[in-house]
Input
Amino acid sequence: MDLDSLRFANFSDLDSAITDWSQMVTKLKVLQDDAKNDLKAKSDKANWAGENATVTRSFVDKTAGEFTDAHTQADTITKILTDTRGELVGYRTQLNAAIERGLQKNLTVRDMGEGSFTVTMNIHPDRAAKGTTVPEHTQQDVDSFRDEIQNILRNATESDTSAAKVLNLLVDQAKQGFSGAKYKDRDSAAEAVAKAEEAAKILKKNPHDVTLTELNTLNTTLASYKNNPLFAEQFATQVGPKKVLEFYAGVADPYQGFGRDPKFFEQAKLLQKNLGITLGTATLSDSDKMEDWEAKMVKLGPDRLGTDDATDPTGFGVMSNLMRFGDYDDQFLNAYGDKLIAYDKERNVEDMSPWVNNWNQGDLNFYGKDDRGRDPMTGFMEALGHNPDAATQFFAQPEGAGDTVDKDGEVNDHLTYLTKDRIWLADPTLDGDGKNNAGKDSLGHALEAATTGYAYDADPMAGKDPMIPGSGDHRTAATAGVMEQVAYLYGGEDGPKMLHEQSELADSLGKMGAAYIDDIDYSLSGIGDHAQDDGTFPAKYQGRANFGNDGAVNFLSVLGQNETSHGVVTAAQHLYTLSALDAYPATSDANIDKAHDALTTGAEARGILDHSRVQQAETTYKADAEEANKSLGRSGDWVKLGAGVVVGGGIAAIPLPGSTAAALVVAPMAADTVGDMVNTFIGHEVDKSISDAEQDATEKSQMTSAKFYDAGLDQLGEAYSAYADANPKMREEGDRQNWVEEIKSGYLGTGSAQNDFRGRAPYKD
Output
């Protein structure tokens, strides 16, 4: 900054800009509040049907979000301008005060242009007026005066240029719409950019020369700023994509461990997560620099890095391990995945994996004993599992598919390859479990995200307002399109074999089936593919999944074969039926008819699941009746899940047995609020007929098929009795007693018999 520019600065234009932006913030705050408290609130509470219930509500939600982002961006710009103006005014005051002090020692400054200046005597003693005493000064006075002026100009320049930099970065974050990046002042925004440049300097070093202290500093910085948009973009673009890959490969390479401080690899583990999240945040920027960065990263995917570290990995081999963590741009993930799939397909040869082999010792994943991180497809699937929108796009149903998926040509090529054609190899560490294939497990995670709209390990109740109807349901026509494909594949002729050979997907398939239990019931409710009951099973979102009657039977029959998937879907089905009974109290004939249909259809679904479970147990264990009984006993334990269920926003969050608290099953409910039927199940004690078997270790979880069916009937009977007892109108009409036979017939007859005539036969080795 030139001396005279600051000395005689006129801030009127900046003042006008601040005033304009301040007024804009005020106006946008009103619009934001109106959009949230009026427009969106009315949309949430409205009892809309058809497209209004989905398209309009989604549009309103997005529009309200845009008003929020617009207000946030305007507020941040105003604060940065205001803060910068205050700093520059302060520096102008300091400059003029310094000049006044200089005059007292007969010193002044002259602007030489381009940021330079010179210190001169104000009045030369030889030219002083007669009788005038000129103040004296020393060389130290000159040097001190020069340094003070220089320091003021340096600070003013930093304030001005950093403000311009952060404002440009902020505006470039979003080419369309508005950025949600929020900063309280220029200092905080400028500090983020400065910290990014400091961190980038460490990554630009040779990873073998990085000290433990530097790595610790890097992790501390990344941990603090990994979700900061300006920091992330500046960091990523300063380093560049290839250097990021080379640095992480060098730090994480297990063969660098000899002679290293063990704490180094503790920091390397932290780096994998912190760096992955930071890069994900960076990709969310729409700036030209980041778009170029992303394109280069995708291009680097198939290429070797040309390093001695980690067996000279490909770009895919490194980046896939970093993207296990973080929120990434959907387009970047899809472009990356398209190239990875194409590269992988060309090398999908038996016993010739380009990833999991004896010469690849590039262990670049620090999380999970069953996953060394050598197969980049596993890390990419984890990335999709944490980025639902990207996953839904990646497995999108091909254009031209019919109302339901009923032929191979209507299945996404990526999905077909990964579920049917790709050779997945286990990649355990020395102390891992070679029987567990982490890649298949991660494929399940990606499909969960693609079909449910949630990250596979997300808590659907976190940050949600349970009073807002439908706020917890993230399904769309696009997610349903993926689900239809999954049901077609795993409910197809090869479904039992696929589930058996991909048992790692059982929990994920169960969660997917649970997430669409209302649509499954809808598909079961008709006569073939006709007369489906959309009154009892209304669509919760536009473009609901249509499995077809036959497809629903086949999919349930396969899910029922596995203990895990059977238990998850059965729990979701039971909860959904109970919520329907809460939603349709016997206050009218229409409601009574809906309750009847919910019970009988639910009984049919339960019959398919239970019959399939019994058949598979008998087939798997053959003559070993004791093992078959134990298997059925474990399957009956699903009732224990009720105690951990949380309901809100039109969904139920069911804890998955044997998993962490974060592994929750998201299942739709017929009612937006919880009624007595659901509350009773959530608060009930476990059925003694099941739990008593656990008292004797030699008989733990034993149950004959007859007892298994008896328990199923008893649960359906309890639901019917509770509904009838709560609604006296039911007892007044004798024809309602036909329900008993119809529920029994649905469970033991129609449902169970489906497997004999239509569903998939149990898997045989």
About this structure: The chain has 29 helices and five strands. Strands lie at 107-113, 116-121, 646-648, 651-655, 664-668. The first strand starts at residue 107 and ends at 113. The CA atoms of residues 633 and 701 lie 4 Å apart.
